[in-house]
Amino acid sequence: MNINATLVNYYFLCHRKLWLHAHTIRMEHTSEIVYEGKLIGEESYPQRAEKNQEVEISIPYPPLGADGALTAKIDFFDAKKGIVHETKKSNAKEKAHTAQVQFYLYLLRKNGIAVSYGLIEYPKLRLTERVTLDEEEEKQVEGWVNEIAELLAQAHCPARLPVSKCRSCSYFDFCWIDEP
Ligand code: SF4
């Protein structure tokens, strides 16, 4: 099993969602919200594909087993300037977004690639968030990864969040189907 950027993102949203996704119980393909997010990423900045580089990257992570790894597929990396670009369709900035980009910066740096910072663009908010990764933040990323590995090792699915936090989740029907 690997830890990827999606799991890092889910770690900050819901541990149950993280566990379900990692155990290949997938609902995202049924979600219009996820589809809309992909569309915004693809349509907001079509010129990016020409000048930025898609990068697949990984480092070994033995706590997950002999083949365990931290992996990421970064859609837009400007290698010349060392800038990771990420686009979010969200109406609000979230810690999960920042953490995902810090995870990208961490993996690039651990592979000896020079990185400057990340930029998260929010087309709906018309703003851009700058994301850095200093030494202290690197340690935080390592802490998240270790906690994610512990969650994945749990035999049982973590408890649900309060329903008020679940309304836009692609697992809503899965988690709440028995509720009146
Ligand atoms: S519906 Fe709620 S409890 Fe279930 S995975 Fe989504 S956020 Fe977590």
TrEMBL record:
Pfam families: Cas_Cas4. It is an enzyme of class 3 (hydrolase). The keyword Kinase does not apply. Gene3D superfamilies: 3.90.320.10. The keyword Nuclease applies. Mg(2+) or Mn(2+) required for ssDNA cleavage activity. Keywords: Antiviral defense, Exonuclease, Hydrolase, Iron, Iron-sulfur, Manganese, Metal-binding, Nuclease. Residues 5-177 form the DUF83 domain. GO terms for molecular function: exonuclease activity; iron-sulfur cluster binding; metal ion binding. InterPro entries: CRISPR-assoc_prot_Cas4, Dna2/Cas4_DUF83, PDDEXK-like_dom_sf. NCBIfam families: cas4 (TIGR00372). Belongs to the CRISPR-associated exonuclease Cas4 family. CRISPR (clustered regularly interspaced short palindromic repeat) is an adaptive immune system that provides protection against mobile genetic elements (viruses, transposable elements and conjugative plasmids). CRISPR clusters contain sequences complementary to antecedent mobile elements and target invading nucleic acids. CRISPR clusters are transcribed and processed into CRISPR RNA (crRNA). PANTHER family: CRISPR-ASSOCIATED EXONUCLEASE CAS4. This is CRISPR-associated exonuclease Cas4.
